[in-house]
Design goal:
By secondary structure, this protein is an alpha+beta fold. It is built from 5 helices and 12 strands.
């Protein structure tokens, strides 16, 4: 038997083994991708689920008296113009962020403080009807409420809420979750008893009716986990002392 003939079987085996090795590599790669995809859609993390005592947040103390409170829809202002009762009274901020004064008309106040509104009203009255008017504006009732929706949502931002608002409704305000979002890990951050606290929720279970759709409150921060939100999620978690993260019952 020649030398070339003795090498032929091993050469044939090597040629056969080569595509097999490539096939196993492809299979291993597919399994890794599947595993990562599975992790992206699972529960987990340091914030617990099914928290029973994740109730209403602390009520802000004298929010209406705060000089840096920024006005929003449904807030009620008390305007006092010294010596001119026609302009004095209570005014409610409409949905477009305006109040309407007699003879003056619409006055934009959205996002302004009470002191800024007083200056704007003084300018308007001075230009038209009064000389050097004394104007005082006080927030009589702070009714506007806002939440922050962040993470893997289409349009992160700060959104006004009115009345009862649920977690699913909050996500819808941000135009829904993105394609890479992990709907099984959504965290609400809230201040309760003076502590920053957090609880996790599973949107898939909520949509299927397996879990209740929790109510959100003003000043809540909602973070949807996902690939693009991982840094945001970790930053929020890192700000929480362990004692302020709720433990499930």
């Amino acid at each position: 038997m020649s030398t070339s003939q003795t090498l032929r079987p091993s050469t044939a085996m090597a040629r056969l083994a080569s595509p097999l090795r490539h096939g196993w590599r492809r299979l291993a790669l597919l399994l890794c991708v599947a595993a990562l995809a599975g992790c992206a859609g699972t529960r987990g993390g340091p914030v617990p689920y099914d928290v029973k005592n994740f109730g209403a947040p602390d009520v802000p103390v004298s929010i209406a008296a705060s000089s840096d409170y920024h006005l929003g829809p449904a807030d009620v202002l008390n305007v006092s113009v010294f010596g001119v009762s026609e302009f004095s009274g209570d005014y409610t901020v409409d949905n477009l962020g305006r109040i309407k004064l007699p003879l003056v008309g619409d006055v934009p106040v959205l996002g302004q403080t009470s002191d800024q509104v007083a200056v704007a009203l003084k300018t308007k009255l001075q230009e038209t009807y009064l000389r050097n008017p004394e104007v005082q504006v006080v927030v009589k009732s702070a009714m506007s409420q806002r939440i922050t929706v962040d993470g893997s949502v289409t349009q992160p931002g700060i959104y006004p809420i009115g009345g009862d608002t649920s977690l699913l409704q909050s996500i819808a305000m941000a135009r829904g979750a993105t394609a890479d979002a992990n709907a099984r890990r959504v965290v609400i951050f809230r201040t309760i008893n003076g502590q920053r606290s957090a609880a996790a929720f599973d949107l898939k279970d909520i949509r299927r009716g397996k879990q209740p759709d929790p109510q959100v409150f003003s000043n809540d921060i909602i973070v949807v986990d996902g690939n693009t939100a991982s840094a945001t999620f970790k930053n929020f978690i890192s700000t929480l002392p362990l004692l302020t993260i709720f433990r499930p019952f």
